[in-house]
Amino acid sequence: MRINVTRSTMPPLEEYVDELKELWDSHWLTNNGAKLKQLEEKLKIYLHTPHLQMFANGHLGLEALLRAMKLKGEVITTPFTFASTTHAIVRCGLRPVFCDIDPVTCTMDPAKVEALISPRTCAILPVHVYGNLCDDRALRVIADRHGLKLIYDAAHAFGVSQNGVYAAQMGDAAMFSFHATKVFHTIEGGAVATADPALSEALALERNYGIVDEETVVTVGGNAKMNEFQAAMGLCNLRHVEEAIEKRRCVTEWYRSELDGREGIVLPALKEGVIPNYAYFPVIFTGERLSRDEVCKRLGEHDIYARKYFYPLTTDFACYRGLPGFDSSLTPVAKQISQQIVTLPLYPDLPEEEVRLICSLILG
Ligand SMILES: *Cc1c(COP(=O)(O)O)cnc(C)c1O
To answer: Averaged over 286-307, what is the pLDDT?
Structure first.
């Protein structure tokens, strides 16, 4: 049987059908429906944020955020991320400036940020890669010292906290993705969390054409609304998310018990005070025994598909070739890790024997 890197969690079908019955009664399918409002309230509590705006997907949430903040100029970000982060910056008419990463957490290295700041810099946009939280304290100090916005791509960090500080509380705002492959999902979906009520209002306008009421349109917004079917899926999945995270923890433990301390293999560090969500299981193959590409090939021969996540760096994408500043040699740590890292299959119902098989193939 084929094993993919991930598999979407599904709630019991009856639970989803029950939610849908109410939509057949109300005929209200989108535009601030009852399901959306319910989910928004529940997620505010779960994520620990005073304001949360839901979106059709995480990427549109991030674009809406960059627009709502009225940013201009350069944004310091990381090339070790999914296409969405870099594309959002570029699509909003901003210029990404790429900062290297910390080799242990794979998140932006705060020690390398200040050298990249110019008079044109307006914001810092780091990513909590694999749910590893960035060094928020250090980044906040830098942002404040230079009057910059601090915006997190928290797509991987659903519910993650460190010493009681939650991902949604870090930075001026944080984007979460509820894509089908994420720890918590609404099929497609996302949200932006912030403590700033004015920013939250601006996000709501960006999401729905800038419409305040029937006769008042105040900004050139787009359409990025989450519909009721998405919200209904979210309500169901949220009931089971703790159980899903616990199952992910078990899978992670099985991997660790097999792979920890083996020659040529580096596993993610466990950080003090962090409550993780076990979104991914990244493994670095330093090449003493096997290279990352050899591991992927060997697994593929057994119909097991790990993912080279993140490879290539966004700076190496064909669509950016030759553009100034898009040069992966400027971020050597990210470049090296992108060639050595792979995320192994991880989802709540991945059976223990499959994990043992994957490990024996890697070690064999
Ligand atoms: C999934 C993801 C996104 C985009 O989220 P969508 O909901 O798929 O639009 C952005 N950044 C990162 C790092 C992601 O993994």
So the answer is: 94
